[in-house]
Every structure is written in C-alpha cells, then in structure tokens.
Amino acid sequence: MKKLINAVDTVVTDALRGVAAAHPSLSVDVENKVITRARGPKAGKVGLVSGGGSGHEPLHGGFVGYGMLDAACPGEVFTSPVPDQMLEATKAVNGGAGVLHIVKNYTGDVLNFQMAAELATDEGIEVASVIVNDDVAVQDSLYTAGRRGVGATVFVEKIAGALAEEGADLAAVAAVAAEVNERSRSFGIALTSCTVPAAGKPTFELDDAEIELGIGIHGEPGRTRGPLAPASELAAVAVDAIAADLALDGDLLVMVNGMGGTPLVELYIAYAAVAELVAARGGRIARNLVGNYITSLEMQGFSVTVCALTPELTRLWDAPVDTPALRWGR
Amino acid sequence: MDTNVFRAWITSAAEAIEANRDHLTQLDAAIGDADHGINLSRGFTAVLAALGGQPAATPGAVLMLTGSTLISKVGGASGPLYGTAFRRAGQALGTAEEVDLPALAQALEAALAGVQQLGAAREGDKTMVDALAPATRAFAKAVAEGAAQADALAAAVAAAEEGAAATVSMEARKGRASYLGPRSVGHEDPGAASTVLILAALRDAAAQDTDAAAP
Questions:
Q1: Least CB-packed of B43, B76, B167, B206 within 10 Å?
Q2: What rounded mean pLDDT belongs to chain B?
C-alpha cells in the first residue's frame, strides 16, 4: 500500500488539520471531528448537517459554507460518524429554526443519525431528516437496506442549502431536499478497487480487464462484474440504468463524477458520451457538473447522477454558493 | 455472577476482537467494506479505557458503560447495534450486584430485542441476529431446563456458532452486504462472527469465575 499519509490511525485527524489550515472560512473541531462555518449559526436560519465516512472528499466537509451545509461530521474512512459528533454539530448550527440532517442511505449512517436526532430532540432542538437514496443499481425493496445514497447527496445539499439561506422554514427545506432526492437517480462503475488505509489492501480484487458495475461509494463491490469497454459504452450502461427509472426529458441537472482515481480528461470523455445519450433520449442538460465531488478514495471509475429539474430547483441550483468545493455567484 | 465476571467478560471480548481483528475485516471485505474488525477493535479499546477509568459498580453498569462507549466510538452500523445490545442488556440487569441465570437470559433477550428494533433485521437476513437469536433461545431453554451455568453458556455459544456458520449460505438482506444480492452467498457474515466471539468470551469469563461455577 502506497498512501500519502503519516500513519493509518491519524488519517482523518491529519486531514482535518489540513482542512482547517486551508480554509479560514471553516471552523474545524479536530478532536470531535466536526466542521462548521466559521461564522457560527445564523439566527432564524435552518441549519443543515450532513456527515458520513471519510474518503469521499470533497463530500461532506468541502460543501460547508454559504448556500450549502452548516456542518459536516466526517467519520473514520468509509465508516459512518458517531452520534456524539452529529449531536455536537446539530447543537453548533442550531439558530433556533431547527436542523435538517442529510443522510445517505447506508445502514451505519442511518442508525447513527437516528440516534443523534433522538439525542438532539431530547435537548429541545427540532430535527428533520432526509434520507438520500438515488442509486438505481440497488433493487429497492422493503426487505433490503434499500437504495444507497450517492451522487444526489451533492444536489440535495446544494439546493436545500440555497433554500435555507433564503430563510425558509424547516418543513420547506426538508421538503425540497426530499423532492431533489425523489427526482434524482445515479449509477456508478468502478475500474479498480480502492484501499482503506487501516485495511492495507484493496477491498476487492479486480482483473485488469474487469470492471464492477453498480458500485456504491465505500469500495463495496458492485452488483455485477463485466469486461472493460470503451467509455462511451460504459456511459451508456449508466445512462440506460438511470433512464429505466427516470424519464430523461425536460431540463436536467447531470453530474459526471469521478471516484477519486480517474483523471478529468477521462471524465470529460464520459461526459461527452453522457451528453449525447441524454440528448438522444430527448433530455436537455440545463446544468452540469464534471469532476470529483463524491469519491471513493483512489478508486478509478465514475458515476452519473441525473436530477429532473423544475424551474424552482434550477433557480435554487443557480443561487450563490461559497464552499471549498462548490463556488459561484458570490 | 458478579461485577468482576462481567468486567472479565468485556476484557476477554476485547482480547478476542483484537486477536481476530484482521479475520473480521477480511470477512467484511468479501461482502462489505472491510472495516468490521478495525471498528470493533477501536471500540473495545475505548471500552477498556472507559472501564479502567471508572468504577462501574454493578454488572448492569459495566454493560451500560460498554454499550455507551461502543455507540460513541465505533460508528458504522456495528456501533449503534452492539452499543444498543449492551445497553439494553445492562438496563435489564438493573442495579443487581449478582446476576443469576434467569436474569442473564432476560438480559440476552433484551439485547436481541434492541438490535432487532434498531436494525430491523430478522433471522435469515445474514446479520448478527442469525447468531444472537439462536444463542438467546438456546440459553433460555437450557436455563429453563435447569442446566448448570457452564452448560447453559456452552449451549448459547454452540447455537451462535451454528447460526453464524449458517449465514454462509444466506443471501444478505440487510446492511452493505445486501447490495451484492446473490453474490453475498458463500461468505460468513462478519457481524455474526463477532457475535460468536463476544458470547464465547462470556462463556470463558464465567468459567474462570470458580466461585460462581461451584454448585
């Protein structure tokens, strides 16, 4: 294992010290692993808290700032944070208008946020939660853990963050977060595995000619394995899987996201194919993101996320945002 | 069984988790995200530190502190699930200074109920419930039939081992392994495996408590 780290036990705290040093707009509690806006809670504004395992950077800490999150709780690599962190973050961002927890649908994240919400409620803070579950690779069923929360998390955090910044109440912010989730779908493909520092070796083995289809973001294997194919064909697999569950017509927000180890030049190759495929299905990509936004350590691969926009969602997407990883209009 | 037995249980469980850290992580790598051993090891290390720094006066207090520390330190799904299991067991034991077999049976049942309530897993879903549920049943049955402490605990561990082994052929319906669908078949569930280790630690700790084991 070759990693740019000091020690496997200090990966998260060492990285947080770097985040603190790089971004004076953020306040980083390295010991309790909570990232908040340096200016503290804004009175009367709904606070937005998200969190999850580390290794997905810039998610979530990179999205803390004006127009997006108020706080992020990074867990250990690929391990959900603990309720103490989430409670700390919830208390820190509560400006009296309640707090929205944005939770990716992974069992650990859901259970820990559930416990944190109960603890916060006990302390008199109004908490609403939205569970993001956009991954079409997973068959949704009452009898399974359900679809994973992946790329749509970025959309939810941006759009709900914009509405919260305008002063909307908790119910409205939670409703728009749920709406974005319902209108979004994702599909991911891995070309390589990735190595959790503490584990020291790749999470799964993949031959040079093999790929994993339908991956999540924690290095877990996908639903099926297949042969490596040209980018245009892989893009078609992703777009087809999404189109099977979401009509790709009208105005769309499309993200081609790198899993951490894929160069931008390859992501643009994938985006070219995605854009053609979406256009052929009658969709119009009104807004897009191409880059590394929700990653899986050094995994090579990409995911495609599509959100069917409404004029209001487009307006909120365009609203000013000022975070380390997403910044425009301000 | 007194407070010392419960302290010895947790210490022995921590040692077993540490000794099997890489094994548990490897089981998790096959069908999950390769961190089960790492996370439990971090959690139980913190539990030992917490127990060392605080005189938990009763068996129930030992388990409550164990559970709270696991919830605070582990993360993932296993933190809340094991944490809740120990806390519920601790609550069931109340403030009693000595725990008899029926009380321990009730504590196991409370732990199982807590895990199922939180994780919504049923037997056959390929989770820790597949080890904990049969162990709880086997222990209650042995106690009801008047078995000696060592025999009842041995029956619980045997049932847990059997249950964990049975997860190999199951298709996962909960947790990250469920994303693999049929590909999850053929691998032992790491949560069931760690449950066996923790119950075996209880059996061993109780066996070393010669006073209580004497008829």
A1: B206
A2: 93
In a domain, B123, yes or no: yes
Catalytic residue among A23, A56, A60, A101: A56
Longest dimension (CA), chain A: 55
- Strands A99-104 and A47-54: what pairing? parallel
User: Nearest C-alpha of chain B: how many angstroms from A327?
Assistant: 31
Nearest Cβ partner for B29 among A84, A112, A199: A199
- Quick one: angle between helices A170-182 and A152-165, nearest 10? 150
The mean pLDDT of B78-95, rounded to a whole number, is: 96
CATH entry, A12-183+317-328, from 3.40.50.720, 3.40.630.30, 3.40.1190.20, 3.40.50.10440: 3.40.50.10440
Q: Spell out the residues 6+ positions from residue A323 whose beta carbon is closer than 8 angstroms to its own.
A: A62, A63, A64, A65, A66, A67, A68, A69
Contact A75 B74 (CB under 8 A): no
In a domain, B149, yes or no: yes
Query: Given this model, what pLDDT does residue B210 score?
Result: 57
The pairing of strands A34-37 and A26-29 is antiparallel
B215 within a domain of the structure (yes/no) = no
At residue B62, the pLDDT reads 97
CATH code for position B100: 1.25.40.340
Mutate to test the interface with B, among A33, A82, A139 (most CBs of B within 10 A): A82
Considering the domain A184-309 in this protein, what is its CATH number?
3.30.1180.20
Question: Residue A155 in contact with residue A180, Cβ under 8 Å?
Answer: yes
Residue B163 falls within a domain, yes or no?
yes
Which residue ranges make up each domain of chain A?
A: 12-183+317-328, 184-309
- Domain containing residue B159: 3-208
Query: Nearest Cβ partner of A82 from B79, B173, B181?
Result: B79
* Least confident stretch, A278-287, B34-43, B188-197: B34-43
**Range among A134-148, A315-329, B170-184 rated most confident:** A315-329
Domain count across chain B: 1
Say yes or no to pLDDT of B17 above 60.
yes
In this prediction, residue B213 carries a pLDDT of 47
A217 Cα to chain B: minimum distance (Å): 10
Closest to B104 (Cα-Cα) out of B12, B5, B215: B5
